[in-house]
Amino acid sequence: MALNGTYQATEKLLLNAGFTYNHAKDSWDWDFGDRPALLGNGAYENLDGYNNLIDSYSDLTYEQYQTTVGGTYQFTEALYASASFTYDVFNSDEEYVYGDEDGEAFSGYVGVGYRF
Amino acid sequence: MKHYVAMLALLSVLILAATSTLAIAEDSSAHLSGSMEVGVSGVDLKDNPARVNEYVNYRSKEDGVNPAGNLNLEYENDGVLLDLNGSVMGRRDQNYNLELDYNRIFKLDTEYQVFEHWKDHDNLGHVGATMFGDTAGEQPRMTTDATVGVIQGQATVDVAGANQRYYQELDQDYIITHKEWENEADITVPSLPNVTFHAGYRIEEREGLEQSRTLNKCNQCHLQANPKDVDEKTKDLTLGVTGKFGLITIDYEYLSRDFDDDSDGLSYDYFGSGGTHGGIPDADTLLYTSTEPYGQTPDSEKDSHTVKARLDLDRSSSVTATYVNADIESDKDGDSTYTLNKSSLKSEFESFFMKGATRIGGLRLSIRGGTYEIDGPEYTANFPSLADWTGPVGPNLDPALGYDTTTGDVHYESAESREVTEFGIDGVYRLAKGTTLRLGYEYEEIDRDEDELGDTETNTFDIAVNTRLNKKLSGRVSYKYQDIDEPLRGANTGIFQVSNPDPLYPGMAVGLREDYFDLPGQPNPGNTATAVYYWNSVYPNRELETSMDPEEVHEVKFSSTWTPSYNMAATVFGRYRHEENDPVNYKQDTFVPGVSFYYAPNDKMNLTMAYTFNKMETENQMCVGWYHG
Asked: N or C: lower Cβ tally within 10 Å for chain B?
């Protein structure tokens, strides 16, 4: 889902903002417990329930949020200043495969410009 | 620090060029416009940056600030047009583009970009990797908590050393820096205005570190990951010419591509199996029991020639034809376990396609068809261990099938070698004002040289209706059906040697293990061979289809846009796709509905919104191989 907007607050100030949300979920239904017992061989038995972890390894869920705000202020027709700030979040429910992937990032930019 | 100095120097040059041009513009009637911007970008990262900052924004992994800037410049004077854009947001977050047009005689478009990408880092914990027996290798090795439980009872394994290397690998940051410089130039000589010469040059580099995984016989246990130092370079040179001669336009392009891999080589100690099958000890299961390289990409070269011709008969009728011929050659050597009968592998690609389009009354008709052929490499690999064979030559070891147990030679044909034929016809008929009906049919036949992989035949039917009911409402609905005979992926690769009634699921079968070296009571008892290899115990027994490609596809799409006023628009769209392959009990359903909305409540505000939902459900049978040895 994405929401974006721009707003001319004053004659000199233009603001912009955006928000993006992404949710992904995977699951796998499988009961492996009965199968190894067929062979009757200890090497293949479902000791400690490891075999049934196979489908739980696929229960992967993550969420991403990105929020951006920014603006441009026009000092004169030519001289202006711009700034933007972005906050990113990644949350993963499980640590299978790639470990703990949770993270946050704050990024920003401030600049002064001249149009000609 | 020197990188920042270089970056600032480059930005200074761009600003100097811009201001110099500004001064020139003031002295003439030239048009100059643009903007210059200097600033600072900064990043503060918390926890793991690999996903939240996957396509690196300003900085990859360390908090801090960078000098940054943007330059946009457009200059026009007396038939000369210059467009320059540059953006530096960090040392490895840069973009530059220059377009130059000199009186339409000479055009240049050059672009350079640098960006970083965090790569996947599999911790292998989900595999429950065991590295039992790997006591001699000096490379880092993967172990897990589960592994420690398994190998503690083995006196020869240094668990502490294995774990130390595992955690060393976990600490690696896998980041690849991409650099690409692309140039295209066109020259049109005024005395020959209908002919344009083209030239292009592109360099793409990948540098950094990525995880490289390999396996040692059975991948559920003997899997390893190492950091690979990547240094790859691809260079493209293109030369061409386009000529317009009356109704005919002819275009020719030559492409030369070189790929060089200067990455550090990785090696791995492949070890033998301690298992037995039917009382016979397993030999070198993969024919590898020594230190061998892995994770390497061979250097390669590609040359291609493309000729396109287009005949414009009138405003609505045209015929186009395209011919492509390409040669690809890559260096390839054997190692201590096998040798090849050639030092390079060559592939040839050749294609010819034609398309015709015309209008007959209210019907727009287009017909297309053609064929292409991939002639992949054929070569012989010699495995000395294969010549150790002392058992009988059974139906699966017939030299005619590629196994020569006297010389150790194995003949290989490329799975890519094939002839493909395609044909398609589309008709668009105007049903009423603002409403069209489209009908389409497409046929594809893939005839593979390797018989084991089968031939695939696909028939595709399309129908779509486009309509504009009024000025405010429009829409489109389409349906596609595909019938696919022998879809390929893993044809005849499933190992299912003996079928027995499944005591848990009446009516189904369960497979039990049987080696080519059969046990007493099995179909081929009494085999006196002294070694078990993959090539004589596993490969010959592959007989089941394991494809997950569909034999039937149904797909419905729709979209509708409502525009009640000049400042508001809403679109609703959806897609449903159903795939199935009955022989392997495969079924997949995909639902993708969504909406988008635009609204400008006044002349100061613009709002946009978009939402997409994607759901995919897959059902298929699975067989997880359990290896122990």
From this structure: N
Residue type, B606: N
ipTM score for this prediction: 0.88
Could you give the C-alpha distances from B470 to B94, B363, B432, B433, B438, in angstroms and in order?
47, 23, 12, 10, 20
Which of A:72-91 have CB within 8 Å of B?
82, 86, 88-90
Find chain B residues with C-beta within 8 A of A64's C-beta.
52
DSSP string, B130-164: --TT--S--S-----HHHHHHHTT-TT--HHHHHH
- Interface contact B36, partner A, CB < 8 A: yes
Q: Residue with structure tokens 């036949």?
A: B445
Both tokens assigned to B44 = 């503060």
| pLDDT per position as a tens digit, B239-287 | 999 999 999 999 999 999 999 999 887 877 666 555 555 454 555 555 5
Cβ of A47 under 8 Å from any chain B Cβ? no
From chain B residues 44-63, the ones with a CB under 8 A of any chain A CB are 44-53, 57-58
- The b/e string for B222-257 (b: 16+ C-beta within 10 A; e otherwise) is bbbbbbbebebbbebebebebeeeeeebbbbbebeb
B618 contacts on A by Cβ (under 8 Å): none
The CB density around residue B154, as the number of other CB atoms within 10 Å, is: 12
Put simply, whether B140 touches A (Cβ < 8 Å) is: no
Rounded distance between C-alpha atoms, residue A73 and residue A82, angstroms: 6
Cβ contact A105–B146 (<8 Å): no
Position B161 confidence tier, pLDDT thresholds 50, 70, 90 = low
pTM of the model: 0.82
Give start and end residues of each alpha helix (H) in B71-138: none
Q: Do A105 and B628 touch (CB under 8 A)?
A: no
Query: Which tens digit of pLDDT belongs to each residue from A38-82?
Result: 444 444 444 445 555 666 667 788 999 999 999 999 999 999 999
